[in-house]
């Protein structure tokens, strides 16, 4: 590849042909004019099927291929990228909510203005604490800016065009622990926890069943209303709950005792209706059980007929005329039908046993009542 290095367009095209998308920093922004949809600089024409040596889809970049960093030209200094074949610089474990980075390897003649010039490309700088021993701490406004600053780790910095040792250095950028970052992170976590508790409380209140209406205080007017409701079957439950609350509150006294006795008497007369209602439901249940038993008996009769058909087909006179596959199917069908018939038969027998046990219990009760009558 004999391309002049001074031609940036040709260099970018050659790097793209090799499947290495330039990721460098040229000028002020960290990633200048980089279009991820094209995989190359926006100054290069888009990939077309007619371009020689390229397919319709560019080849994917292997994950183990080193990222090509570019030279960064700043106003007062120049940053030269590290060797792409070397392993990436080691970093410590990232503290929670980290917004501060440690920057070492600064030139001895580096000033705070130069530090700002280099690292303000990564984002808004909140504070810089510079030491006399060629290192500093930089605090950014947001956490994602720290990742951009770590991109500069390993770069060689040179002030102007000087080659003096005091004007050069190799940057080492790493995560730094800061009490302010930790405090802000803890405040944020507490705020998220409060929001989560509030959300759960609102959800619980939404799903909580409505509270019962408050019971009115006792008065002669309310007593007459409750007495009328006790005689109405549809409003009995509400009225009897009100009556219970009044008695538990201690509303019964010598003046109101007759009224409460009348309401209790109305509640007692409701017992007969409940007994009759229960008997009607039991009768409906017995009729449904009898109907189910008759339907189950009819189903069992039909199962017996189907099984008889299978058994007749399995006799030698008809069996020899079926093919091997047909015989297999008939055998499987016969087995399935017999299993289902046995299950239904056991269910019907269980119902009949329950009825016999109930009848025997009734007979025992009748005998006991007769015996008690004779003894009395």
TrEMBL record:
Cell location: Cell membrane; Secreted, Extracellular space
Record keywords: Cytoplasm included?
A: no
Where would one find coiled-coil regions in this protein? 264-298
Q: Where is the composition biased (Acidic residues)?
A: 357-367
Q: Please list where the region (Disordered) is annotated.
A: 357-376
Quote the PROSITE patterns the UniProt record gives: RRM
* Stretch forming the signal peptide: none
Q: Where do the RRM domain residues begin and end? A: 99-178
Record InterPro entries: ENOX, ENOX_RRM, Nucleotide-bd_a/b_plait_sf, RBD_domain_sf, RRM_dom
**How is this protein annotated for GO cellular component?**
external side of plasma membrane; extracellular region
What GO terms are given for molecular function?
oxidoreductase activity; RNA binding
GO BP field:
ultradian rhythm
Q: Which SMART domains match?
A: RRM
User: Domain of life here?
Assistant: Eukaryota
Cofactor dependency: Cu cation
Q: Is Oxidoreductase found in the keyword set?
A: yes
Q: Which UniProt keywords apply?
A: Biological rhythms, Cell membrane, Coiled coil, Copper, Electron transport, Membrane, NAD, Oxidoreductase, RNA-binding, Secreted, Transport
The record's family statement is: Belongs to the ENOX family.
In its UniProt entry, what is this protein called?
Answer: Ecto-NOX disulfide-thiol exchanger 2
**Native source organism of the sequence:** Homo sapiens
């Amino acid at each position: 590849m004999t391309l002049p290095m001074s031609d940036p367009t040709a260099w970018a095209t050659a790097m793209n042909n090799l499947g290495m998308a330039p990721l460098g920093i040229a000028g002020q922004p960290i990633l200048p004019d980089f279009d991820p949809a094209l995989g190359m600089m926006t100054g290069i024409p888009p990939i077309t099927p007619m371009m020689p040596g390229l397919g319709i889809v560019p080849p994917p970049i292997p994950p183990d291929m080193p990222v090509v960093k570019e030279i960064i030209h700043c106003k007062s200094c120049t940053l030269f990228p590290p060797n792409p074949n070397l392993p990436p610089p080691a970093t410590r474990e990232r503290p929670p909510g980290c917004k501060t980075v440690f920057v070492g390897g600064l030139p001895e003649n580096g000033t705070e203005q130069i530090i700002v010039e280099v690292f303000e490309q990564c984002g808004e700088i909140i504070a810089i604490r510079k030491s006399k021993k060629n290192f500093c701490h930089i605090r950014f406004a947001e956490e994602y800016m720290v990742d951009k600053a770590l991109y500069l780790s390993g770069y060689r910095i040179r002030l102007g065009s000087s080659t003096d040792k005091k004007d050069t250095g190799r940057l080492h950028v790493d995560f730094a622990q800061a009490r302010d970052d930790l405090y802000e992170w803890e405040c944020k976590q507490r705020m998220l926890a409060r929001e989560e508790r509030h959300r759960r409380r609102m959800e619980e209140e939404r799903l909580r069943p409505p509270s019962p209406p408050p019971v009115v205080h006792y008065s002669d007017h309310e007593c007459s209303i409750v007495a009328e409701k006790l005689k109405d079957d549809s409003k009995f439950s509400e009225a009897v709950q009100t009556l219970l609350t009044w008695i538990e509150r201690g509303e019964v006294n010598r003046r109101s005792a007759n009224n409460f006795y009348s309401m209790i008497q109305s509640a007692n007369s409701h017992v007969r209706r409940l007994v009759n209602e229960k008997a009607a439901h039991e009768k409906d249940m017995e009729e449904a059980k009898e109907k189910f038993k008759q339907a189950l008996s009819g189903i069992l009769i039909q199962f017996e007929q189907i099984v008889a058909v299978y058994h007749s087909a399995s006799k030698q006179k008809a069996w020899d005329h079926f093919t091997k596959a047909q015989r297999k199917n008939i055998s499987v069908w016969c087995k399935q039908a017999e299993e289902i018939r046995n299950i239904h038969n056991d269910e019907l027998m269980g119902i009949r046993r329950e009825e016999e046990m109930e009848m025997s219990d009734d007979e025992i009760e009748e005998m006991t009542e007769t015996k008690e009558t004779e003894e009395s």
